[in-house]
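fyi for ur records
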Amino acid sequence: MDDARLNEELIDSLFAIRTQVHAELRDLAREVGLTDTQTDVLWRLSREQEMTARRLADRLQCDASTATSMIDRLEKRGLVRRVPHPTDRRAKVIQLTDEGCALRDRVIRHSAGHSPFARLDRASRLRLHALLREVTDGTETTEAPAGEDDHGEGRR
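which gave:
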């Protein structure tokens, strides 16, 4: 297989994985009365300590007014709150409430339990994690899969 075809198939696989993960989250979102995007917001808020509406909009790839509307709806449900930004008086930080944290934890447990990656053994998941980190942000993980050294070679 040539490189162009290999890259196409890798991208096809990523889209298929995204579709699987999204479908699982959509089922849970319906069950708890959220939209897919609101579930995505809970997930993203759980990944970073501080998140402003602007940063959330960037992460969701939407405009700030869309993110603000989403935050408003989540706030009305008691899942998030706005608190003053520690260094910028003009900004607010979006935080999960206790109820939001409980729902976020449920989303994480559900996602992990239905993950397409669960089909792989731990060593394969660690290798894939390292490769995906390298592709997405240029960093490599320091934890080598069991039985391998830092160069991916079996221990002797």
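The CA atoms of residues 42 and 104 lie 6 Å apart. thats all i got for now
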